[in-house]
Write a structure and sequence with these properties.
Immunoglobulin-like; elongated
Length: 160
C-alpha cells in the first residue's frame, strides 16, 4: 500500500482534512505507512472593538486551535519584529482569540497585526488600524469652562 492510496482511502471514506489540526499524521491500519499532511489555516474576522481613549480589544478567528499574540505601534511596519509593542503570547490553544491593548495614547492611530501559531506553523495577519478616542479630559475641560464662564457667574448674580 502506498501513501497516496492511504490518503485517497481516507478521503473516499469522507474524512475532512480541513477540519483536522494544522499538522495531521495519518497512519495506515498496520502503522507501516505514515503520512504528514499540512492543512492551511486562515485568519479571519480581525477587528478592533471596545475602543476608548486608552485601550482597545482586538479579536479574530482562525480555523484551527492556535496560540495568540498582537503586535502594534503608531506607525506602519512590514514585519512584526519592527513593532514597538506586543502582547504576551497566549499559549492556550483556541479558535477564537481576543487581546486587550491598554495604556494607549488618546487620539492616536494604531497599526496592528495578529499572530497565531500551532506547532511550527505561524500565521501573521495583514496590517489593520484603529484610532483611540480623544481624552475624556477634553470633555472635563469643556464642562469646567462652561461652569466657570456661564453657570457660576449666573449663580453668583442670582445670589446677590
Amino acid at each position: 500500500m502506498t501513501v497516496n492510496r492511504t490518503v485517497k482511502r481516507m478521503l473516499s471514506a469522507g474524512i475532512a482534512l480541513a477540519s483536522l489540526a494544522t499538522l495531521v499524521t495519518l497512519a495506515s491500519v498496520n502503522a507501516d505507512i505514515v503520512c504528514t499532511v499540512s492543512v492551511a489555516l486562515t485568519i479571519s474576522d480581525v477587528s478592533a472593538t471596545k475602543i476608548s481613549h486608552n485601550h482597545a480589544t482586538i479579536s479574530w478567528r482562525i480555523d484551527g486551535k492556535t496560540t495568540s499574540q498582537v503586535f502594534y505601534d503608531t506607525i506602519s511596519h512590514d514585519s512584526i519584529r519592527d513593532y514597538a509593542y506586543s502582547t504576551a503570547e497566549r499559549k492556550a490553544l483556541a479558535e477564537r482569540h481576543k487581546a486587550i491593548l491598554d495604556k494607549l495614547s488618546p487620539s492616536t492611530t494604531y497599526y496592528y497585526r495578529v499572530r497565531s501559531a500551532a506547532g511550527s506553523t505561524e500565521l501573521i495577519s495583514d496590517e489593520y488600524t484603529f484610532a483611540t478616542l480623544s481624552s475624556p479630559r477634553g470633555l472635563t475641560a469643556w464642562l469646567s469652562n462652561l461652569f466657570r464662564e456661564y453657570v457660576f457667574p449666573f449663580y453668583l448674580s442670582w445670589l446677590w
